[in-house]
Amino acid sequence: MARRERSLKVEIPKPEQDKPELGRVGIIAAVGFAIGVAWPWLADVRLVPAPPNDEVEPAAAPSASVAASAGAPPLSSTSAAPAASAAPPERTAEETTKISPVQVTTCRDEGGKKVKDCDRIGIDDRVRPLLGSLSRCDVARGASQMLSIGMELDFAEKSVTDVFAGKSTTFSKEQAHALVDCVKKDLSGVHLDGIDHEHSRYTIFYFVEFVPPGAAVSPGGGPAEETAEASGLATVSWDVAVVRDEPDTGKIVARLRYGTRVVVTARRGKWYEVKYDAKGEKGWVHRNALGM
Question: Most buried of 31, 39, 265, 290, CB within 10 angstroms?
Answer without folding.
Answer: 290
